[in-house]
């Protein structure tokens, strides 16, 4: 399956993408994670991306599309993929359509995760991530690690993302409403959007997502 996940920052896209990718046996492709890997490896792309990310803005389309395209062309993505955080505006969605058409492929669904603003703000404020693996995500109250500041999975150090400060989160939400939400209408016109609530326990949201995707199959 080829799926795009969309939803406000903190809705739980990364959390759900890890689980759905496992169930559906497709790679989880997160442009946010790819940028963060570049930042930690101090690449030129990482240096450029960091300045935009820290301000809560989108990284320019040209570099983002090139990076996403390169990742989607890896052999493990041939049979399908789950995109998390890409596309993030209409021109990225058009670029993705173009790429898929060239390869004679199409999307199966766009899964839209809905969560109210006060909830996503709480989720982001308490989020802690493992330095060793960005898929190891915790929360101060919702998913507490057994030992404060230490990853339950690998023992790595937990940290708070630079762009999770209150001011930056507010900016990211504004960018979501103005630039990303319009892609929902773009994909509605193609009949691809499946909207589910991202509220409730993580397992319940995963089940809800799998059932909604089955209906699209
Ligand atoms: P990105 O990394 O994509 O961040 P985001 O979209 O803002 O989403 P988040 O990672 O903040 O949240 P999430 O929805 O994945 O939530 P999570 O599962 O972690 O992008 C970051 C930046 O990179 C952008 O601002 C931009 O600058 C740049 N960028 C990336 N892609 C780009 C693109 N295509 N174009 C241009 N720029 C781009 O969950 C959050 C917390 O809640 C966790 O602590 C989790 O444990 C907890 N939680 C999850 N689910 C539940 C639940 N059901 N109940 C209780 N707690 C829960
Ligand atoms: Zn870890």
Automatic annotation (TrEMBL):
The keyword Nucleotide-binding applies. InterPro entries: Adenyl_kin_sub, Adenylat/UMP-CMP_kin, Adenylat_kinase_CS, Adenylate_kinase_lid-dom, ADK_active_lid_dom_sf, P-loop_NTPase. It catalyses: AMP + ATP = 2 ADP. It is found in: Cytoplasm. The lineage of its organism: Bacteria, Bacillati, Actinomycetota, Actinomycetes, Kitasatosporales. The keyword Nucleus does not apply. Keywords: ATP-binding, Cytoplasm, Kinase, Nucleotide biosynthesis, Nucleotide-binding, Transferase. It is an enzyme of class 2 (transferase). Pathway: Purine metabolism; AMP biosynthesis via salvage pathway; AMP from ADP: step 1/1. Belongs to the adenylate kinase family. Consists of three domains, a large central CORE domain and two small peripheral domains, NMPbind and LID, which undergo movements during catalysis. The LID domain closes over the site of phosphoryl transfer upon ATP binding. Assembling and dissambling the active center during each catalytic cycle provides an effective means to prevent ATP hydrolysis. Catalyzes the reversible transfer of the terminal phosphate group between ATP and AMP. Plays an important role in cellular energy homeostasis and in adenine nucleotide metabolism. It comes from the Bacteria. ATP binds at residues 10-15, 127, 137-138, 200. This is Adenylate kinase. Monomer. Residues 127-163 form the Adenylate kinase active site lid domain. Residues 30-59 are annotated as: NMP. GO terms for molecular function: AMP kinase activity.
